[in-house]
Amino acid sequence: MHHSVRLRTEQTFHDLQARQRAETLVGQSLVFADDVYLDHETWIRPAVARLGDVRGRRVLDLGCGHGMAAVVLARRGAQVTGLDLSAGYLAEAQRRAVANGVAVSWLVADAQRLPFADAAFDAIWGNAVLHHLDLDRAGAELRRVLRPDGIGVFCEPWGENPLLAWARRRLPYPGKSRTADEAPLDGRGLDQLRRHFASLVVEGHQLLARVGRLIGPQPWLTRIDARLLRHAPGLWRWCRYVVIELRRGQRPSACPRRAG
Predict the structure, then answer these.
(1) What's the CA gap between 47 and 124, in Å, rounded?
(2) Which is nearest to 47 in space by CA: 229, 204, 164, 221?
(3) Partners of 247 in the β-ladder
(4) What is the pTM assigned to this prediction?
(5) β-bridge pairing 199-205 and 79-84
(6) pLDDT tens track for 64-90
(7) Distance (Å, rounded) from C-alpha 116 to C-alpha 148?
(8) Where are the strands (E) in 7-130, listed by range?
């Protein structure tokens, strides 16, 4: 699909989601504690920790959606820019920032054509955004706007577990709606990112605990997952979600095979 058509499709889908969210948020407080966001999925807190101390640092929240991550980062002292394709989501995000007393810059833009100067950011955060993008285009843009010593941290659905792929296609569960063109990240996507970043680290989350998607969170399974992945890190390929850490370094001269 041509990029401009895909862009309009994604924008329409997420603007509709934002309108539906706006209806459910009427009369509700937008004020929240950091823990509400950091613990709403098991990978969020450890992923945010990878950013390190963000005080005084320029941070881009790529695909910021409802703006909760941007608020958390701003409360930690970061100079945050929240970027999203959906003006509807940004309207909610802006109201949330005001309600929580933080300053965030908001911008409607295409993640594959970032309207920023080279090396504009010390860190880039993204949750469930990369798998919507052409990663060759997006990877080049992310590298361009990230400082040479900067870091990018992204949380993404992982797509190389055939059993999980079947469940995603066949089983009903909350929040299943998606755009026609998106697909969970896979090894090819990692290879595309490696063309632009010298260092790429992948950490798996929800190996067994992914059943919580159907039956509710099971903390004991999360604890078992942590032990299994610590002793057999290669099991990340069977996880539901991955956290990806990117560092610029020197531009890779070739695309190596993904780690196995």
Answers:
(1) 12
(2) 204
(3) 151, 199
(4) 0.87
(5) unpaired
(6) 999 999 999 999 999 999 999 999 999
(7) 15
(8) 58-62, 79-84, 105-108, 121-127
